[in-house]
Amino acid sequence: MLYISHFVKKLEKLSHFVPIIGHSLLNYHTLSCSTPIGNLPGISTSNNGYSRFKTLKISRYPNRNSCFSSTAIDHCYKTPASKSVFSDISRIDSLTPRELRTLLNDAITSKVDDVLLWSKAVSYCISHADNFKFFDILSVLDSLTKAKVYDKTLLAEFSRILTMQVPKMEPRHFVQAIHIFASTGTFPELLFLEIFYGIIRQSDKMYASEYVDIFLCLAKWDIKNQQLLSALLKSVAKNVSMLRYADIVQIMACCKILEVSDETFYFIMDSWQQKELAMMTIQELMDACKRMFSIEVKWAPYEEMLFKEFIKQTTELDSVGISQLADPFDCLDFLRRINSLSREYLLALSKWCADAVHKPPTRSQKRPLTHQLVQLYNLIWEYEVDDKYVDKAVLKFVTSKGGLQLRSPKPIPTVYKPRRRYIYTEDPKDPGKTGELAYIDEEPAEERGEESQDNDIIKELEPYPKWIDNIKIKESTQSCGKAAFRPKPIKARHKNVPVQE
């Protein structure tokens, strides 16, 4: 039971009180209380009728205690998140809803548990409820819930305001409102009906993360409204292409918790899950597997299939496939974490290292580091894998001083470069039958005579147009011996323009 001491009785005579918020700025010592405060407005009480809040805190520094005097109206303290906090608690009445929201958020961050501060905030919210916007209401209620301050009058007043502002809300606001009122054990019928209708109206325009948040919220509070669930299932089935694997796992788990019995919906989700699993790359599989550890609600069969596919692909990788990973050694650590490291992956990783050490040590290139090569060498020795490639990687890494003294990049077999080693292969034993060569015989005399006669007829004709009077043939300067022709036009006299000789 909490009581207020005689020090606090003296403070009651004064009209000023400091809500100390900057916990990192001052040192405090606590005072015991000697007067019951369970009946203060806006404060929830325990079974014995008294508040569960801690004792009051007052600064040890004399200059800080001056804020309890009558001249403390101009005194203020800075906090990490807001510009200033007024020393006079009665000045809360002059704050705007936005400033009050910031003040309460700072109080939660700094773990302020003063009874007078929270009771004054509750009374202010009740008297100025009509001035609050829906986002201010949700933020204030969230702060009060974290401080374990519950007031039925405040909840009823804010629920009335929220009911009128539901059309302005987004899906994240719907989820936040359901969490706040459900955690207090109050379910205003009109407010929840408007929220459900708002979710139905916006169900076709939601993102995948918003679908997941709404399903998790409904599953947490066991809300089984059939009309709402039916609309959500239709929208998810219609927009199933935007769901990623982690979203599918969570939505399926929530549907099982809510006892959804829609076989068509389950068939669509199963089909898309199989397609998504088959189309994911090795990097996407690893990211999805990592995310499974942070997901609380998930469908176990889908999770097992994901891990099996990821382990299967790691055993089938080669040195080229490992380059698809953003960090091959990160994948190595993850495989060791889930006890699924295979000899095939170690061999492929050693081949990749033998090739990657030839790349320059820049941020745009992926190459192993010193401790990574040492770790890989120890694992190869432990798993009894062929160490030929890792020896090459270590030798090149040491001789080039970590890539700082690379003489020349590794030659590429498919590109011609002078003084490089070619890769020779033997000819096939049976290359196939080749056809016989067809030789061109000399033309018969009759055909040659006909061609010469045609040429004589062509020469007798006027070989050039009338506007060409002469063709000068000059010797070619080209090495191939081609003749150069340049037609020379006739100098014609125009009736208005004299010809310049």
Describe the structure.
The chain is built from 20 helices and 6 strands. By secondary structure, it is mostly helical. Among the domains are: 88-205, no CATH class; 333-407, no CATH class. The strands form 3 sheets. A two-stranded antiparallel ribbon has the order 1-2. Strand 3 (76-77) and strand 4 form a beta hairpin. The longest helix has 17 residues, at 263-279. It is elongated. The N and C termini lie far apart (127 Å). Mean pLDDT is 77; it is low at 1-86.
Helix tally equals 20
How are helices and strands ordered from N to C? Answer: HEEHEEHHHHHHHHHHHHHHHHHHEE
> Based on helices, strands and strand pairing, what is the structural class?
mainly alpha
Please provide the count of β strands.
6
Strand content: under 5%
Order of strands across the widest beta sheet?
Answer: 1-2
Largest sheet: 2 strands, antiparallel
Query: Shape, please?
Result: elongated
Chain-averaged pLDDT: 77
Question: Percent helix among the residues?
Answer: 40-55%
* Distance between the first and last residues' Cα: 127 Å
Computed over alpha carbons, the radius of gyration is: 42 Å
Return residue spans where pLDDT drops below 50 for at least 5 consecutive residues: 1-86
